[in-house]
Amino acid sequence: MNAPLYNNHILRLAASIPFHERLADPMASVEKRSPVCGSRVTVDVDLDADGRVRAIGMVVRACALGQASAALMGAHAVGRSLAELEAVRDELTAWLAGERDVPPGWPGLEIFAPALPHSARHPSIRLGFEAVAEAAARAQTAARAI
C-alpha cells in the first residue's frame, strides 16, 4: 500500500460530484455527518414505482475522500434498489474494517485501498453510501404509507 492517500484520481472525483443540487420535492432526505472530522453529506432521493432510485440530489461538504466517495455513489445510484444500496453500504463498511479482502462490487471503490490503514478516514468514505441507503429506505416506507 504505497499509493498516496490523496491521489490524482481521488482529487478528480472529488471535483466531479454528480447531482450536486438538492431535489425540489424529494420523497426522502438524509444528512450524515462524520463525528471524526465533521464531513457532511446530504442526500435526497425519489424512487420509481419499482422502488429503484429515480432521482438523486446531494450536498457534499466533506474532505476529498468523502467527496470522491459521494461522487462514485452518485454516479451509479440511479436505477439501484434499496437492497443493492444497503448491500454496498454494508460491504464498504466491512471492507474498510478489514472484514473482507476485496472492495464492494460498486464501480471505482478500489481507489480507496490506500485509506484502509487510516481508520479515521473511513467515516467520511462511508457517508454518501450510508445517506443514500437510509434515504431510499425512508422513501420506500413513505411510498408504502400512501
Question: How would you describe this structure to a colleague?
Answer:
The protein is globular, with a radius of gyration of 15 Å. A 3-stranded antiparallel β-sheet has the order 1-2-3, covered by helices on one side. The longest helix has 24 residues, at about 120-145. Helix 1 crosses helix 2 (about 65-75) and helix 3 (about 80-95) packs antiparallel against helix 4 (about 120-145). Helix content is about 40%, strand content about 15%. It contains 4 helices and 3 strands. The protein is α+β, with helices and mostly antiparallel strands. The mean pLDDT is about 95.
Quaternary status: single chain
Q: Which series of helices and strands comes N to C?
A: HEEEHHH
Radius of gyration, CA atoms, in whole angstroms? 15 Å
Number of helices: 4
**Span from first to last CA?**
50 Å
Write down the overall mean pLDDT: 93
Task: Flag low-confidence runs.
Answer: none
- Report the principal-axis shape: globular
Read across the widest sheet, the strand sequence of neighbours is: 1-2-3
The fraction of residues in strands falls at 15-25%
Q: How is the main sheet built?
A: 3 strands, antiparallel
Blueprint (SSEs and pairs):
Blueprint: H1 8-14, E1 28-33, E2 40-47, E3 53-61, H2 64-77, H3 82-96, H4 122-145
Antiparallel strand pairs: 1-2, 2-3
Helix pairs in contact: 1-2, 2-4, 3-4
List keywords for this structure.
146 residues; alpha+beta; three-stranded antiparallel sheet; 4 helices; 3 strands
